[in-house]
Design goal:
With 368 residues, the protein is of the alpha/beta class. The protein contains 14 helices and seven strands. The chain has a seven-stranded mixed beta sheet, sandwiched between helices.
């Protein structure tokens, strides 16, 4: 199987509403972007001319984490331009659970939604990766993406000493740096073609901040190092093979502020020449909500039980993909359960310093 094929199978979230239910932090990250989104809309010329106004959430998962922010943005546009039809397109990979997106948006779950109360609103979905073109040229007014574009289009090679690029070294790390750069150029170039003149992008992405911090790697127990240690332990005790350990790599790259900004501020860069300009960039750290709860209630078992599902919601498919397909499905499932049970035990027995703090860049971009 090619690296690209493996990657396409890895980057998906658990369906049936599991992602939104288990990722409180991801929703907090998006809700805190709402002010930037509304300010971006206020900076746009949005005449009340009856033409469609197109918005998109790219890398939406099940749509639940962005539902409140998207609702605020759509209502904001409607107030500025009452006659304009609104289109809202949710995009993700083909394996995404789009049925859950529509159930959430159309009020068929317990999650509050904007759609039932809005007239002249048209909701769509696209199973196309943001590494490709999604929309026709000059048709997208406002694009939003959160906690998604750190995924790379393919693995550039192995990481033999770790499961994530944050632990990679030497040439192996360099390969991920280059893949991250190339994919970022591709993502921005695609959006430059799709945006209308004066359109805006609001991108909220995992990063390495000015202090070198990243998701789950701030001041406490490093999450990715823990993933690696517990997964390697299964190889050392013979539960999985060393080949399976080495096959398990997150197809991700965490850019820093300079890497995020570079294509948007260099007049010689094709992205800049395509019209994209950087209006705003900042990094933010949002504390793990499960650790904050633990600091209030002090119950380590409760903390572990509530914290592990949020890790599992987005990482399970990566570890599952590392296991040989020669193993029966039931056996692979048991190995995955054992792995996450070991992480839960670790948190329960050593709760101090545990948690998945979110480290993001918040970017606002416009097209000239």
């Amino acid at each position: 199987m090619s690296a690209k094929a493996e990657t396409a199978g890895d980057i998906r979230m658990k369906g049936a509403g599991y992602y939104s239910l288990a990722t409180t932090g991801a929703k907090i990250v998006i809700d805190r972007a709402a002010t930037l989104v509304l300010q971006a809309l206020d900076a746009m010329d949005i005449p009340d001319d009856g033409t469609p106004f197109a918005m998109a959430d790219m890398g939406c998962a099940d749509g639940g984490t962005s539902i409140d922010m998207i609702g605020r943005a759509l209502h904001h546009v409607r107030a500025k331009a009452p006659s304009r039809p609104l289109t809202m397109t949710y995009t993700d990979l083909p394996r995404n659970d789009f049925s859950q997106v529509f159930q959430i948006v159309h009020g068929q779950t317990d999650i509050a939604t904007y759609a039932p109360d809005m007239e002249n609103l048209y909701v769509f979905a696209s199973g196309t990766s943001f590494h490709q073109r999604i929309f026709p040229a000059n048709t997208l007014n406002l694009g939003f993406s959160a906690t998604a574009s750190h995924y790379i289009s393919e693995r550039p090679g192995p990481i033999t000493n770790h499961v994530h690029m944050v632990g990679a070294e030497g040439a192996e790390r360099d390969a991920y740096v280059e893949q991250g750069r190339a994919d970022w150029m591709r993502i921005l170039g695609n959006r430059a073609a799709e945006l209308v003149s004066g359109g805006r992008l609001i991108l909220v992405n995992f990063c390495r901040d000015e202090e070198g911090r990243y998701l789950g790697g701030t001041d406490g127990v490093d999450m990715f190092d823990t993933f690696d240690r517990l997964w390697r332990a299964l190889a050392e005790d013979g539960t999985i093979t060393m080949a399976e350990y080495e096959a398990t790599v997150f197809p991700q790259y965490y850019r820093d502020v300079e890497e995020c900004s570079a294509p948007l501020i260099d007049p010689n860069n094709p992205v800049y020449q395509a019209g994209l300009r950087l209006d705003h960039i900042e990094t933010r750290v949002i504390d793990c909500p499960y650790r904050l709860d633990y600091e209030e209630h002090g119950d380590a078992a409760k903390f572990a039980k509530e914290y592990i599902p949020t890790l599992r919601s987005w990482s399970e498919s990566v570890f599952f993909a590392g296991l040989s397909t020669d193993r029966p499905l039931e056996e692979r499932a048991k190995i995955i359960d054992r792995f996450y049970n070991s992480y839960e035990t670790f948190v329960r027995e050593c709760p101090e310093g545990q948690g998945m703090d979110y480290v993001h860049t918040y970017m606002v971009i416009h097209k000239e």
